[in-house]
Amino acid sequence: MTRRRLVDDLFDRFYPKSEGYGDATIRFHRLCHDNIARGASILEIGAGPANETTSELAAIGTVTAVDVSDEVLDNPDAAKATVYDGGRLPFADEEFDACVSNYVLEHVTDPDTHFAEVARVLKRGGIYVIRTPNLLHYVASASYLMPHALHLAIANRLRALPEGSHDPWPTVYRANRPPVLKRLARRAGLAPIHFSTVECEPSYAKGSAVLFFPMMLYERAVNSTDLLSPFRASITAVFRKA
Known about the structure:
Elements: H1 3-14, H2 24-35, E1 41-45, H3 52-58, E2 62-67, E3 80-83, E4 96-102, H4 111-121, E5 122-133, H5 138-145, H6 148-158, H7 178-187, E6 190-198, H8 209-222, E7 234-241
Parallel strand pairs: 1-2, 1-4, 2-3, 4-5
Antiparallel strand pairs: 5-7, 6-7
Protein backbone atom coordinates (compact mmCIF):
# COMPACT_ATOMS: atom_id res chain seq x y z
CA MET A 1 0.00 0.00 0.00
CA THR A 2 1.39 3.44 -0.91
CA ARG A 3 1.85 6.09 1.77
CA ARG A 4 -0.80 8.25 0.13
CA ARG A 5 -3.29 5.39 0.04
CA LEU A 6 -2.60 4.63 3.71
CA VAL A 7 -3.33 8.22 4.73
CA ASP A 8 -6.49 8.30 2.59
CA ASP A 9 -7.68 5.10 4.27
CA LEU A 10 -7.06 6.59 7.72
CA PHE A 11 -9.12 9.68 6.85
CA ASP A 12 -11.89 7.51 5.37
CA ARG A 13 -11.98 5.43 8.54
CA PHE A 14 -11.76 8.12 11.23
CA TYR A 15 -13.23 11.12 9.36
CA PRO A 16 -15.96 9.71 7.08
CA LYS A 17 -17.71 12.31 4.96
CA SER A 18 -21.01 10.57 5.77
CA GLU A 19 -20.66 11.91 9.33
CA GLY A 20 -20.10 15.48 8.22
CA TYR A 21 -16.32 15.60 8.16
CA GLY A 22 -14.49 17.45 5.42
CA ASP A 23 -17.01 20.28 5.39
CA ALA A 24 -15.33 23.11 7.37
CA THR A 25 -15.48 25.38 4.34
CA ILE A 26 -19.10 24.38 3.72
CA ARG A 27 -19.87 25.41 7.31
CA PHE A 28 -18.24 28.79 6.73
CA HIS A 29 -20.23 29.30 3.54
CA ARG A 30 -23.40 28.39 5.43
CA LEU A 31 -22.53 31.06 7.99
CA CYS A 32 -22.29 33.57 5.13
CA HIS A 33 -25.64 32.46 3.67
CA ASP A 34 -27.31 32.64 7.08
CA ASN A 35 -26.15 36.18 7.82
CA ILE A 36 -25.93 37.99 4.49
CA ALA A 37 -29.21 39.11 2.91
CA ARG A 38 -30.06 38.09 -0.63
CA GLY A 39 -29.11 40.76 -3.15
CA ALA A 40 -26.57 42.32 -0.78
CA SER A 41 -23.56 44.30 -1.94
CA ILE A 42 -20.60 42.25 -0.65
CA LEU A 43 -16.93 43.16 -0.32
CA GLU A 44 -14.66 40.12 -0.20
CA ILE A 45 -11.32 41.17 1.29
CA GLY A 46 -8.35 39.05 0.24
CA ALA A 47 -10.43 37.32 -2.41
CA GLY A 48 -7.58 36.14 -4.62
CA PRO A 49 -8.24 34.40 -7.95
CA ALA A 50 -11.02 31.87 -8.68
CA ASN A 51 -12.13 30.16 -5.46
CA GLU A 52 -15.24 28.58 -3.98
CA THR A 53 -15.90 31.33 -1.45
CA THR A 54 -16.29 34.03 -4.09
CA SER A 55 -18.53 31.66 -6.01
CA GLU A 56 -20.73 31.13 -2.94
CA LEU A 57 -20.91 34.84 -2.19
CA ALA A 58 -21.87 35.58 -5.81
CA ALA A 59 -24.87 33.29 -5.29
CA ILE A 60 -25.98 35.60 -2.45
CA GLY A 61 -25.36 39.05 -3.90
CA THR A 62 -23.01 41.24 -5.93
CA VAL A 63 -19.36 40.69 -5.03
CA THR A 64 -16.60 43.27 -5.18
CA ALA A 65 -13.24 41.55 -4.68
CA VAL A 66 -10.18 43.30 -3.29
CA ASP A 67 -6.68 41.92 -2.68
CA VAL A 68 -3.06 43.01 -2.38
CA SER A 69 -2.23 40.65 -5.28
CA ASP A 70 -3.21 41.30 -8.89
CA GLU A 71 -4.37 37.67 -9.01
CA VAL A 72 -7.72 39.05 -7.90
CA LEU A 73 -8.19 40.55 -11.36
CA ASP A 74 -8.65 37.00 -12.67
CA ASN A 75 -11.46 36.17 -10.22
CA PRO A 76 -14.37 35.21 -12.53
CA ASP A 77 -17.13 35.41 -9.89
CA ALA A 78 -16.49 39.00 -8.83
CA ALA A 79 -18.56 41.74 -10.46
CA LYS A 80 -15.63 44.09 -9.80
CA ALA A 81 -12.04 43.43 -8.73
CA THR A 82 -9.54 45.91 -7.29
CA VAL A 83 -5.92 45.73 -6.13
CA TYR A 84 -5.04 47.75 -3.01
CA ASP A 85 -2.10 48.27 -0.67
CA GLY A 86 -3.52 46.41 2.33
CA GLY A 87 -4.30 49.61 4.21
CA ARG A 88 -7.15 51.97 3.35
CA LEU A 89 -9.88 50.25 1.36
CA PRO A 90 -10.43 52.12 -1.95
CA PHE A 91 -14.21 52.45 -1.49
CA ALA A 92 -16.69 55.04 -0.27
CA ASP A 93 -18.08 55.25 3.25
CA GLU A 94 -21.05 52.94 3.90
CA GLU A 95 -20.84 51.34 0.45
CA PHE A 96 -21.42 47.67 1.34
CA ASP A 97 -24.02 45.57 3.14
CA ALA A 98 -21.45 42.94 4.09
CA CYS A 99 -17.72 42.28 4.16
CA VAL A 100 -16.17 38.80 4.18
CA SER A 101 -12.63 37.57 4.75
CA ASN A 102 -11.66 33.90 4.62
CA TYR A 103 -8.21 33.13 6.06
CA VAL A 104 -7.00 36.71 5.64
CA LEU A 105 -6.62 38.28 9.09
CA GLU A 106 -3.53 36.22 9.85
CA HIS A 107 -1.73 38.19 7.11
CA VAL A 108 -2.85 41.68 8.20
CA THR A 109 0.00 43.74 9.64
CA ASP A 110 -2.19 46.58 10.97
CA PRO A 111 -5.41 45.03 12.29
CA ASP A 112 -6.64 48.27 13.90
CA THR A 113 -6.65 49.96 10.50
CA HIS A 114 -8.19 46.88 8.92
CA PHE A 115 -11.17 46.82 11.28
CA ALA A 116 -11.61 50.59 11.14
CA GLU A 117 -11.72 50.40 7.35
CA VAL A 118 -14.22 47.53 7.39
CA ALA A 119 -16.45 49.54 9.72
CA ARG A 120 -16.11 52.62 7.49
CA VAL A 121 -17.20 50.90 4.26
CA LEU A 122 -20.06 48.97 5.90
CA LYS A 123 -23.54 50.44 5.96
CA ARG A 124 -25.25 50.79 9.33
CA GLY A 125 -26.33 47.33 10.39
CA GLY A 126 -23.88 45.78 7.92
CA ILE A 127 -21.98 42.67 8.89
CA TYR A 128 -18.45 41.33 8.69
CA VAL A 129 -18.05 37.52 8.40
CA ILE A 130 -14.59 36.11 9.05
CA ARG A 131 -12.68 32.84 9.29
CA THR A 132 -9.07 32.85 10.43
CA PRO A 133 -6.59 30.55 12.23
CA ASN A 134 -6.47 30.55 16.01
CA LEU A 135 -2.97 31.36 17.27
CA LEU A 136 -3.55 29.12 20.30
CA HIS A 137 -3.69 26.08 18.00
CA TYR A 138 -0.46 24.16 17.40
CA VAL A 139 -0.49 24.68 13.60
CA ALA A 140 -0.81 28.47 13.82
CA SER A 141 1.70 28.61 16.70
CA ALA A 142 4.23 26.62 14.68
CA SER A 143 3.67 28.83 11.65
CA TYR A 144 4.13 31.92 13.82
CA LEU A 145 7.39 30.68 15.33
CA MET A 146 9.08 29.21 12.26
CA PRO A 147 10.84 31.21 9.52
CA HIS A 148 8.62 31.80 6.50
CA ALA A 149 11.11 29.96 4.27
CA LEU A 150 10.60 26.80 6.34
CA HIS A 151 6.83 27.27 6.23
CA LEU A 152 7.05 27.48 2.45
CA ALA A 153 9.07 24.28 2.33
CA ILE A 154 6.71 22.09 4.36
CA ALA A 155 3.17 23.54 4.52
CA ASN A 156 1.83 22.37 1.15
CA ARG A 157 3.61 19.03 1.50
CA LEU A 158 2.03 18.32 4.90
CA ARG A 159 -1.41 19.09 3.49
CA ALA A 160 -0.70 16.91 0.43
CA LEU A 161 -1.69 19.72 -1.91
CA PRO A 162 -1.13 19.08 -5.63
CA GLU A 163 2.01 20.35 -7.32
CA GLY A 164 1.57 23.92 -8.47
CA SER A 165 -0.64 24.95 -5.52
CA HIS A 166 -0.21 28.52 -4.33
CA ASP A 167 2.56 29.02 -1.77
CA PRO A 168 1.43 30.23 1.66
CA TRP A 169 1.48 33.99 2.12
CA PRO A 170 3.58 35.42 4.99
CA THR A 171 1.71 35.45 8.29
CA VAL A 172 1.89 37.76 11.31
CA TYR A 173 -1.08 36.64 13.50
CA ARG A 174 -1.72 40.04 15.08
CA ALA A 175 -5.49 39.49 15.36
CA ASN A 176 -5.61 35.74 15.91
CA ARG A 177 -6.56 35.17 19.51
CA PRO A 178 -10.26 35.31 20.42
CA PRO A 179 -10.02 38.12 23.03
CA VAL A 180 -7.79 40.20 20.74
CA LEU A 181 -10.14 39.73 17.79
CA LYS A 182 -13.18 40.77 19.84
CA ARG A 183 -11.35 43.80 21.22
CA LEU A 184 -10.27 44.95 17.74
CA ALA A 185 -13.81 44.62 16.42
CA ARG A 186 -15.42 46.45 19.32
CA ARG A 187 -12.88 49.26 19.08
CA ALA A 188 -13.99 49.77 15.47
CA GLY A 189 -17.69 49.74 16.41
CA LEU A 190 -18.38 46.15 15.32
CA ALA A 191 -20.32 43.99 17.79
CA PRO A 192 -20.01 40.17 17.73
CA ILE A 193 -23.29 38.40 16.94
CA HIS A 194 -21.64 34.99 16.38
CA PHE A 195 -18.27 33.76 17.64
CA SER A 196 -16.90 30.23 17.70
CA THR A 197 -13.75 28.17 17.46
CA VAL A 198 -13.74 25.13 15.18
CA GLU A 199 -11.58 21.99 15.02
CA CYS A 200 -12.21 19.63 12.11
CA GLU A 201 -10.13 16.84 10.59
CA PRO A 202 -6.33 17.42 10.79
CA SER A 203 -5.56 18.69 7.30
CA TYR A 204 -1.85 18.99 8.06
CA ALA A 205 -1.70 15.22 8.47
CA LYS A 206 -2.82 14.51 4.91
CA GLY A 207 0.75 14.08 3.81
CA SER A 208 1.97 11.96 6.72
CA ALA A 209 0.60 8.81 8.36
CA VAL A 210 3.08 9.39 11.23
CA LEU A 211 1.41 12.69 12.13
CA PHE A 212 -2.13 11.43 11.69
CA PHE A 213 -2.70 9.78 15.08
CA PRO A 214 -1.27 12.50 17.37
CA MET A 215 -3.18 15.14 15.40
CA MET A 216 -6.35 13.05 15.55
CA LEU A 217 -5.97 12.63 19.32
CA TYR A 218 -5.62 16.41 19.66
CA GLU A 219 -8.77 16.95 17.58
CA ARG A 220 -10.73 14.46 19.69
CA ALA A 221 -9.51 16.12 22.91
CA VAL A 222 -10.37 19.74 22.03
CA ASN A 223 -13.79 18.69 20.71
CA SER A 224 -14.58 16.64 23.81
CA THR A 225 -15.28 19.64 26.04
CA ASP A 226 -15.96 23.37 25.70
CA LEU A 227 -13.24 23.95 28.29
CA LEU A 228 -10.71 23.22 25.50
CA SER A 229 -12.53 25.22 22.81
CA PRO A 230 -9.98 28.09 22.99
CA PHE A 231 -7.43 25.68 21.48
CA ARG A 232 -9.39 24.71 18.37
CA ALA A 233 -7.90 25.43 14.96
CA SER A 234 -10.02 28.18 13.45
CA ILE A 235 -12.05 31.16 14.56
CA THR A 236 -15.29 32.00 12.79
CA ALA A 237 -17.19 35.13 13.65
CA VAL A 238 -19.89 37.52 12.50
CA PHE A 239 -19.73 41.16 13.57
CA ARG A 240 -22.42 43.81 13.04
CA LYS A 241 -21.88 47.53 12.66
CA ALA A 242 -23.91 49.40 15.27
